[in-house]
Amino acid sequence: MQLLDAATIYNRMVFLNKMASINSAKEVLLIEPENGDAKCVNNKQRSKKDKDVVAIDCEMVGIGQRSVLARVSIVDSKGETIYDKFVKPRGKVTDYRTRVSGIRPQDIANGELFSIVKTEVHQIVKQKLLVGHGLEHDLEVLELNHPKHLLRDTSTYWEVKENTKVRKPSLKLLASKLLGVSIQDGEHSSVEDANVALQLYMKVRKDWESRFKKKSSRTSYSWEEAGI
């Protein structure tokens, strides 16, 4: 009998865990706009304007009933991290939300000042297409405004239908269904989440931009019908 080395065993376990996570995902119907294109955009197909696309995600902690910025990450159109900073809280943190946020006291004790982070992020994202999931929450804690025509929020492109209810899909669900990857199994990573949002956008970019320009109406379109 052939003995497997430790590396081979580990790689097989990772693969099996990934497949189990995908197969156990809750059965739902993803709805996307008419004429959705599920084809991936590879590096050779990227347009010259890709440099004007960035994706963002923030992690937050609680101060009383408020959510405040604790970490912000930005990736460019190639998925490379161009900004990733912890932020010093403006007040006494009452809930680090570590189980989800991954933030610990030592991470933000010597973090960057909020005013500096806000200015730096603004300089990076201004006049660019800004991709993210639930962007209104990120922009709120950053205390930034961004032109609506430059926002690409992956929580609004698709919808989830369960029985008669329609709701926004989670980033975790979209990553599993459309990208075949498992994320957010424990503590979240703002770098990973920004990257996943970017991949989702790039996956349907052609039709998203076409729909945006034509302002076409939304109709039911399942992910199976889209060939995903």
Describe this structure in words.
The chain is of the alpha/beta class and 228 residues long. Helices cover 37% and strands 19% of the residues. The chain has nine helices and eight strands. It has helices spanning 6-23, 98-101, 105-109, 114-125, 135-142, 154-157, 171-179, 190-203, 205-214, and strands at residues 29-31, 53-63, 66-75, 81-86, 129-132, 151-153, 159-162, 165-167. A five-stranded mixed sheet has the order 4-3-2-5-6, with helices on both faces. Strands 1-7-8 form a three-stranded antiparallel sheet. α7 (171-179) crosses α8 (190-203). It is globular and about 45 Å long. The termini are far apart. Mean pLDDT is 79; it is low at 18-28, 33-46 and 216-228.
Strand content: 15-25%
- What structural class do helix, strand and pairing data support? alpha/beta
The shape is globular
What is the makeup of the main sheet? 5 strands, mixed
Question: What is the secondary structure topology, with strand pairs?
Answer:
Layout: H1 6-23, E1 29-31, E2 53-63, E3 66-75, E4 81-86, H2 98-101, H3 105-109, H4 114-125, E5 129-132, H5 135-142, E6 151-153, H6 154-157, E7 159-162, E8 165-167, H7 171-179, H8 190-203, H9 205-214
Parallel strand pairs: 2-5, 5-6
Antiparallel strand pairs: 1-7, 2-3, 3-4, 7-8
